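Protocol step 6 of 9: fold each sequence in the batch and record its structure tokens directly after the sequence line. For illustration, a two-sequence batch is reproduced in full.

Sequence one:
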Amino acid sequence: MTDSHTEEAPVVAARTIIAILYIGMMAISIPFNFLFIVTVMMKKSYRTPTNVLVSNLALAGLIVAVFLMPFKIYELFHPKSDFPFPYSIDMCRLRSVIPVACIFCIALTLMTICIDRCIVIVYPMKPYLKMTNKKAYLFIPFSWLLSFAVYSQYASISVLYTINNTIHCIPFYPENNATDIIVRNATGNRIRIIELSRIAFW
């Protein structure tokens, strides 16, 4: 066995383990999240405000499992291959926005559930502050619209870029050298650049 094969073996093993974990998460996430959403939709008695919000979490998890994890598994075993849709900038942008928008939506929903539980405990005599089904149904589209609105700018910087004859979908951040901070040592040599343009973008 050559040295190159010896060096590649641990990498292949690590990728295989990560892929198995991804597949395991998909096998658990897809059916259970789908089942929870269907149950809440079909059983009227289960449509409590908390369950409606949790179904929003399940929807976000389902989208990540269906649209993100297959890409990750493909990239694990084809690190030098082209982006799966090498001629579609729209798919590149969609693939960039969906994961972060889903995570942001999950964070918003968890925060809302926590605030609702806090209100129930701290202000039990103020029922008008509690989460209701109507508020939960209004919150779900609002959370998704806000999530995609916040990260729509991320789609605007996602580009198809060719590196070594391979097409990649990567973020290309706008640069503004006038705002960057250059850190120098005592002798005046540049040791670090703090890109304020990138920080401001985020």
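Sequence two, same batch, same settings:
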Amino acid sequence: KQWYQRRVRGMLGMVDPEKPHASSFLSTLQKYDFELSWKLALICKLDKSGLPFFILDKTLYIFEIIGSGVPTLTYSLAILPFTGYLRFYLSFSIAQILDIFTQFTVKNIFKRSRPTYQDNTDMFFTHGPDKFSFPSGHCSRMTMFWYLTSCLMDVETLEYRLLAVVFAVITMSRVFMGRHYISDLLGGMVLGLLNGMVAWHLLWLR
């Protein structure tokens, strides 16, 4: 089994994640975080030579673009002069600016490198602090969107549930594509929830 795993990793050009050697509780959590994140990324890469992987890879890449801050913020600002929902889109834009500022600040504080077991050179619009891994910007943004959507929409509607599924897919794709570790997602969720609460209770224009 170990021989097979090494052979698969070699064929796919993947390397084991860097594992901490200390025996502290934090280091143990970090070890499991690295190993589980790596195994999830490996699952998505096993079918690289076949059509299923091609479809999955391109689909997840589309979700990566959709969840990026550049398209969402550009759309919100571009539509402002042409919409009757001026306060909504202006508030939405302010919330996104808050999210970008806070996640870039946290990324610069921790400066955690992205996973080394995946080629991340094809990431969409990687600039400045985006080269760092913690927290996940996509996850922070989707969590904030989910919180605001929960405040604005009836959670029993089909539209809300579909949006929630999209947010979840974009969030989980970050690990499956090898862009982030699971702990990056957890950090992004916490940051996104805080940003959503601040945006809704303090910055939202009513």
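Proceed to step 7 once all outputs are recorded. Observation for sequence two: The radius of gyration is 19 Å.
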